[in-house]
Each structure stands twice: as structure tokens, then as C-alpha cells.
Amino acid sequence: MNPRKLAYEAINKVMAEQAYANLTVNEYLSRHRLNDNDRRLFTRLVYGTVENYLKLEYLLKPFLKKKPDPFIHSLLCMSVYQIEYTGIPAFAAVDEAVKIAKEENRFAASFVNAVLRNYLRAGKRDLSALPENEWLSINYSHPLWLVDYLLSLYDRETTEKILRENNESKLLAIRVNTLKATVAEVEAELAKDGIGFRRIPLVKMGLMIDGDLHDHRLVREGKVVFQDGAAQLVAEMMAPERNAKIIDLCAGPGGKTAHLAAIMKNSGVIYACDVHPHKIALMDKLFARLGVKNVKTVLADATKIKDAIKDKDFDYVLADVPCSGLGAVSDRIDLKYRITREVIDELVALQRNILDRTWDLLKPGGKYVYSTCTINPTENEDQIKAFVKRNPDARIVNEKLIMPYEYHTDGFYICIMEKRVEE
């Protein structure tokens, strides 16, 4: 099977049919038998083309009188991606595109051939005359509204650092599961297998891996778990005491819950709640593999949590709330094309609702931890300031914003609030 043909089909599914990029790539790789080189080529073409789609469209625009059929448009964008980003010879990219187009019809093949050869003759378009915001949008392939939004929050230098980091590939991040192994033991096994790694300076148990661990024995045996470095900081900052009673309101897929269980050495009890049944199933499977024994999974909506859980006076409440994900764009390359201001406004309202409906689960003197994987102050600092203003018994005891370019992790916001004890 031709990996380029599969790639342009997958790209079209993501960009024209709004399928999720990671799910589409996994689906194609599981459905088609490709050798290692073809798997790598397929994956690179899909992710690279989707990541740079707006810039590729801009480069192609002078050679298109009107936007062609979505399949042909995806094929042209993929071909220009190969020419500009991969080092694949231009003639090979053009020839392969024409062969694929011929399977559609001979007119499509002639059109693709003409467009790509005209592109090669004319040379790459100059972006330097574009206004600053448009240059950032096209060069880093982010929708213009999103660039303008970030510029309204941050200065130009910071905005460009965010956009650049969003387009960078990150090393695989893992957390050592201390219920089954130590960091030194995991590092020794990685070194023995010739797998490169380095510590994540932000956290205690995190490693960046230069290689593929998806079928490694460390994963199968539950000694490590895939988890972004900044996400690991949530449980570390929370630092629950032994035998604590905790509720994790939006727990799926379970990484933070499992980390809390490891810190507590399986003591106490953690209610891991999620509104999605498939995430409950994923958590049950994850906890079994990691040796987590102090967690009760609960199918529940965080905004209606009292309908499902009658317990109260929790020592800790964790609200890792649904958010825009603007700190995790490098992990979800198609997110930047999906998110809208309207969606952000809806999420802000949902976050406020979760906060307001779950604060009284916390006992006096207890800690409420609010976290997101976004860098948007409206969902972070502003949300918490407004909450504290509405609730005089809440006080902020720790607050941290991690930008994605600082440690090459997701961008994350973590705030710990304490409920005042009445005197």
C-alpha cells in the first residue's frame, strides 16, 4: 500500500471531515500493514501537513483559481509539504502526487501536475510584506483570530514563542510509578536497552524519552506511565498526606489519580469521577496495571456530583477541569483549527459551574486544587480571582503557570486554594 496515498486520505479526513488527527493516524496504522519506513513516512506526512496546513494553503493560493475538490486540495498541500519541509526531491513529490491523482481521473492528474510544476517554477511566496499578525498566523499556521487572541493576552515575543513551541515535536514523557519501581531502577533498564532519556527538571519522577516505549516491558509491567511533565506537577504540588480522603472530579483517563495514589502509597481513599463511561473503563484498566488499590471509580458529572457521591468533608478536591487546551496544542495538532472563542466562552461557564458546585465538598482546612492545560488567563487566573471574590472562605495558597516553551511540556495552570477554618 502506498503510504502517500494513505496519508492524503488521512489528511482529508482530518481537515475536510474534522476527524481527530491522532485517532485517524492510529486507525490507518492499525488497518494497513506498512513496514517501519512507510509507517514513519505516513505519520510524518499526516502530522506535518496538518500542522502546517494554513501556510501550505497560502503558498498554493496563487496557483489555484478556485479551491479544488477537498481530496485534490489535501494532495496538493501534502505535496508542497514534502517539497518545503522533508528533503524529499521535488520531482519525486510531484510524480507521486500525479500517480495518486490519476486514480481519481486523468483530468485531476493533469491539474495536479500543472499546479505543482507552476509552483516549482515560481518559487516560494514571500511573507515579509504581511502585517505582523498575519505573518504570525501564516508562518506558524494558526488561525488569525487565535493569533490576535494571544496577542491580546501576551506581548509579541511571548506569542511567537508559544506559536513556535506549538509546532515543535516533543519527546515522549513518562512518569515513574513508585508503587512498582524507583527512578534509578527505570533509568537502569532504559540504559540497558539503549533508550535515551533525561530527567524533566520540573518534577521528581518524570523522564523525557528519546525512543518508542509503547510496547516496552516497563509500560506493560506498570513501572512507568505516559504522562506529560507539567501534568505530573499537579499531584506533586497537591502533595496529599497519607490516609487522605480525596475526590478527583474530572479524573479520566486517570494519570493524576494514579499519581496521587502513588504519593499516598495506596493509603486513604480517592474517588475518581468522570462523566464518560469509556474513561471509567480506561481508568479501571490503568489502575490495575499500575497496582493502584485505593481508588473508587465513579461515573458522575462534576456539576451534579452530589447526586452520585454522598460523602463529603474531603481533605482534598482536585478539579482538573475541561479547558480550551491552548497549552497542549503540540500534542493535538488539529486543536488550533477546532477551537473557537464561542467554545472558550462555554468552557469558562462550565469551569465556573464546577467550582461553584463542588467547593462545599471540601472540609474546613482542606485543599482545593484547580488545574487546566491552557495558558488563557480567562480560564485560569481570572477564573480563580472571581471565585475567591464570590467565596470569602477561599484563599489562594499556591499558584503556578507553566508556559509550554519553558520546559517543552504542555502549558499548565495549577492553583491550590484552602478553605478557611471558622474561628
Give the number of domains.
3
* Estimated helix fraction: 40-55%
| Annotated CATH architecture of the largest domain | 3-Layer(aba) Sandwich
Kindly provide the radius of gyration, computed on alpha-carbon positions and rounded to a whole number of angstroms: 24 Å
The CATH superfamily of the largest domain is identified as: Vaccinia Virus protein VP39
Strands, count: 11
Topology diagram in text:
Blueprint: H1 3-15, H2 21-31, H3 36-51, H4 53-60, H5 70-86, H6 90-102, H7 106-122, H8 132-139, H9 144-153, H10 156-166, E1 172-176, H11 183-192, E2 196-199, E3 206-210, H12 217-220, E4 224-226, H13 229-238, E5 245-248, H14 255-263, E6 269-274, H15 277-290, E7 295-299, H16 305-308, E8 314-320, H17 335-338, H18 341-358, E9 362-372, H19 381-390, E10 394-402, H20 404-407, E11 412-419
Parallel strand pairs: 5-6, 5-8, 6-7, 8-9
Antiparallel strand pairs: 1-3, 1-4, 2-3, 9-11, 10-11
